Structures are given as C-alpha cells and as structure tokens.
Amino acid sequence: MRRRFTGLPLVGLVTYLHPVPQQSTHEKFMRxxxxxxxxxxxxxxxxxxxGAVLVLRNRIIxxxxxxxxxxxxxxxxxxxKLADPIPAEAILYVTLExxxxxxxxxxxxxxxxxxxxxxxxxxAVDPNPKHRGRAIGLLxxxxxxxxxxxxxxxxxRLNEAFNKWIVTGEPFVIAKCGMSLDGYLTRxxxxxxxxxxxxxxxHAHQLRALVDAIIVGAETIRRDNPRLTLRGGPRxxxxxxxxxxxxxRLPQKATVFRNSQRERTLVFRxxxxxxxxxxxxQREITSVLIEGGGNVLSQALDQRLIDKVQIYxxxxxxxxxxxxxxxxxxxxxxxxxxxxxxxxxxxxxxxxITGYPKKATDFTAQ
Length: 366
Prior knowledge:
Layout: E1 3-4, H1 23-38, E2 51-56, E3 59-65, H2 74-79, E4 91-96, H3 108-114, E5 119-124, H4 134-141, E6 145-148, H5 152-158, H6 160-168, E7 172-179, H7 198-208, E8 213-217, H8 218-224, E9 240-245, E10 265-269, H9 273-282, E11 287-292, H10 294-302, E12 308-313, E13 339-347, E14 350-357, H11 360-363
Helix pairs in contact: 3-4
C-alpha cells in the first residue's frame, strides 16, 4: 500500500493520509534506487545497503549508494554529485528512511534539509524501533513533502539481515548445503566429496560474498579441510570463519589456521548454536552462512534458528553417510518446518531451492 506522511510525528509514531500519486512513476525510480543499493550488497555491514536517485522532470540527474560503513550514505553520495542549488521540483528517491542520528557519519536527514530538497520518496521505514519515523518527522518539520512505502517489500528484503540484527541483536541465519536426493551430504570416504556440479558450487560460493561469517562444525574441518574463502569478486573483507567444536580437538595443520585469512577464524568450544549466534551479533556480525556439517545444520533446524535456506539438490541417491538435516525431527507433521513461497531453479543437472521457513504459528491453522 502506498502512503504519505504529514505533520510532525513522535519518534516511532506515523500518521498516514492520502495515497502517493503516480504509482508507476514512483516505482520506476525506486527500482533505479534499488539498483544503486544492490551495488553495496556485501560491503556495508553492519550498515544496510541503501541506494538513492535524484529525479528532475522524470529524468535521473544524480545517483548514489552506500559503499562501506563509515563512508558517505546513499543520500549524501547522490546529492554531492549535484552543485547548489537543488532544483525545487527535484525529487529524491531513497530505498531506506534516511538516518536521523549521528553515528559514524552525520545525520542524512540534516544534509537533505541543508541542500534544499523539497520532496523525498522513501521505500522502507527504518526498522530500528529507536529511530523509526524520526527522520520523516524531521524532514516534514522542515517543510519537505515526504512519501513512503513505495516498493516497500523489495526495499526491506534487500536488507533482511540488517533488519533482523538491528531489532534482535542476532545475525540472519542462512542454511546452505548440497545434498543427494535421499538427503545425504557425503559420498563414501575414498571418493571426491562433491555431490553437486561445478556450476552449483560456483553459484553457492557467491553467497559467501554477501555474508559476514561462515559457520561449520569440527567434523567438516577434519573431513574436508575446507578453505572457507571467497572465490574472487569485490568484497570489503573475508567473512569470519566460525568453527564449532565440543572436544576442542582440531587439526592444527587445517587450512583455516594456516592460510592468509587465519586471523579471521573463530573457534567456539562447547557452546550452543544460539549462544554462538548471540556472541556473533555482539561482534556486529549481521549475517551467517551455515555450510555444515550435518550436526550443525540439524541443530539449527531443531532449534528453529534458520531464517533462510539455500539447498542444492543433486540427481543422485547415495544411501548412508551424513544426513543433511537429521537431529531430533519435528514432533509431528503439523510442526514440521515449511518454506514460504519457495523458489526452484535448475543449475546444470542440479536443482537450487531457496525459501524462508515459516514460523509454526504461520501454518498450524492450515
């Protein structure tokens, strides 16, 4: 639904009046702002990825996006590309409500006011309960026409990890694995460990560039000796490599302890997965990718800690080996975890399945 703000609301209090006019035009330029925002995916944490465009007479005259924490935010990056004065009829489109308090940088809301922007269209409102609606009130108090909720779902989805972390303090959890048709992760010990195709593995590696940390169990380190590194492409930093172990017995010659990224490796001994996630959240880690093995994936499933799944299904039956998701299992079919609007895509011979687990309350009445 398209809404428009008016008056000066209290922080967190929003007043809705008339619909935003010219929906198709607003959506067109908000999509352009989303394209800008996506340029910062994987590089801005613990900040959200945000994009902005300045439009004059249905033409984009400036673009901007947030590149890294501590750098210019999207609105400032966009407006600084245009010399004073900003035309009175220009419209600033931004995918997320501008910041209203000083953090690593000065408040964007103040800069928008200083530059003389007269109209602002916002995609998603700030998810932080402490700041939600605050910038909107500041802009309106300065006489700026503010509209919101244009492509709200798309703008919010772009920052799904930040949105969870800023509200709960815990990172967004993605469970990723390649498995056989009968649900196993492994081949026999004397064979290559890969079940899925090279195309699927390349696709999966791209996920690493979008998260702050990769989690694996000790057995994965012992059995596979993975690097858990990026495979090229731009990136602010190597994701943290997080290893969970009960015994603490890990091979000291493992690659994660010896390669150039060894300083970005964390080991947690005898801690629950939830406790580890809380610790990572305190370290400003907003998103994690669980890559295995079966024990860690099973813990995440049993404890309902998974926010998103990324599964690569190979057209093979292995029988035996390590189950991808074993654990205790659901108490009943009704309590089984179900995916909301799952997507399926063929990658080479494999099938990629992604989706968001529903909460139990979302489907018990179905």
